[in-house]
Amino acid sequence: EFFAASLAVFGDNTDKLITYITNAKENGIEVLPPDVNESEEQFSVIDDKTIRFGLDEIKSMPERAVHSIIKNRPYETAYELVEKNAKSEVNKTAIKVLALSGALDEIASEIGNRQEIKDRLYIITQRTMDEDDPEVFTDRHKLERERQYLGTYMSGHPLDGFKTDVEWAEVERTGETFNVHAVLSTIKRIITKKGDPMAFLG
Questions:
Q1: Bridge partners, 128 (sequence order)
Q2: Does residue 38 have a pLDDT over 90?
Q3: Model confidence, pTM
């Protein structure tokens, strides 16, 4: 309950969101991605070891769509989702956000990847396609959309496969140095008071 409440309060702050999810995992508590059949509006406790991401916590998710989805569930398929909810409630934005955030994975995996789920629902609801979609939807695109809509990576991490454990006590003892990989999400350029260029990387 503590972690669920903390995530609900600080969910809009990406840094704190990641910190609390990490802390929850360190305490044996898994934070599951959003799901149209299980998620409540806010982060919710499933059991002593599990928290579910809230639908209203997904970035860009229309509030009226959240209320309609919860009211009209359960859904056995993604097609049933759009049949049970009015277009004015679960609109094009809601379909896109639900699909790309992973909230439809459990009821639409047979359709294909998340972009294919979005496109199929666009077709049956007569929505126009998004012109900026990548030609091939890769794992990198999947993770980028999770970060965009959930504020963090849920199904993996871009550095998976590169990570190695480091014995920091040994590093402090020997003074050994390492080359590291990092994912840069933001670059903020400024000019210092002395007139020198400087950048903050995040």
A1: none
A2: yes
A3: 0.82
